[in-house]
Amino acid sequence: MNKFFKISHGFIIFTLLLSCMFLFACGSNSSLDSNQSKDAEVKTDNVKKDLQIIADINSELYTYDSLQNDIEALKSKYPQYVTSDVLTTTVDKRNVDCLIIGDKDASKKIFVTAAIHAREWRTSQVLISEISDFLTKLTLDESYKNSSYSQLMKGCAIYAVPMVNPDGVCIAQGGLSGLQTESAKERVANIAKSD
C-alpha cells in the first residue's frame, strides 16, 4: 500500500516536502572533492543562464491561465522529470491539474496542494516557483547535505496540485466576470442572493 503525505499551502509547506523527501528517500553520504565541486559550479552557472523563469513571483496577479502556461513550460523544460494529469474538470470547465515529478509508480509519494481556498492564489505561484527551482537543482544534479537531488528522488515521486480550486481563484480575482460559463455565473449569483 502506498503512503501519501498531504501537505498544503505553498512555500513553507514545500520546504517540509523537501524535508520529508530527504528523510524518506536519501540514504547515501557521498561527498564531492574540490575538483568535482568546481566542475559542478561551472555546470550550474552555464545551465542557469539557459533556464527560463517559470512562475515569476514578481507578477502582481497569478491567474489560472498563468498556471496553465507554467505547467506547459515545466513539462517542456523538464520532460524527463515532469508529467501531468487532469484530476477533474470544474463546474466552470477548468482543469484541476496534478504535476507528477519523478516516477509515478515510485513506492514513496509526497502530495502537495495549493490554492485550496479562493483567495490563496499566491500559494500556487509560490509552489510552481519552488518546483521550478527544485527541478533546476535536480537537472544540475546539485546536492543537499551530501546527497544529490537525483539520489533523493530515487524511489520517490512528488504529486503537486498547484490550484485545487481554480474556479474560486477566478471568482476571487475577477468577480462574476472571472467565470466563463453562464451556468456558473448563475449559480454564484444565486448563492450571493441567498447570503
Secondary-structure blueprint:
Layout: E1 3-8, H1 10-25, H2 34-50, H3 64-77, E2 82-89, E3 95-102, E4 108-113, H4 121-139, E5 143-144, E6 147-148, H5 149-153, E7 156-161, H6 166-174, H7 182-194
Parallel strand pairs: 1-4, 4-7
Antiparallel strand pairs: 2-3, 3-7, 5-6
Give the beta-strand count: 7
Question: Biggest β-sheet, characterized?
Answer: 5 strands, mixed
Tertiary shape: elongated
- Stretches where pLDDT is under 50 for at least 5 consecutive residues are 1-13, 19-34
What does this structure look like?
- The chain has helices at residues 10-25, 34-50, 64-77, 121-139, 149-153, 166-174, 182-194; strands at residues 3-8, 82-89, 95-102, 108-113, 143-144, 147-148, 156-161.
- A hairpin with a 2-residue loop joins β5 and β6.
- Helices cover 48% and strands 19% of the residues.
- A five-stranded mixed beta sheet has the order 1-4-7-3-2, with helices on one face. Strands 5-6 form a two-stranded antiparallel sheet.
What are the main properties of this structure?
disordered N terminus, five-stranded mixed beta sheet, 195 residues, alpha/beta, 48% helix, elongated, two-stranded antiparallel sheet, single chain
Outline:
This protein is of the alpha/beta class and 195 residues long. The chain is built from seven helices and seven strands; from the N terminus they run E-H-H-H-E-E-E-H-E-E-H-E-H-H.
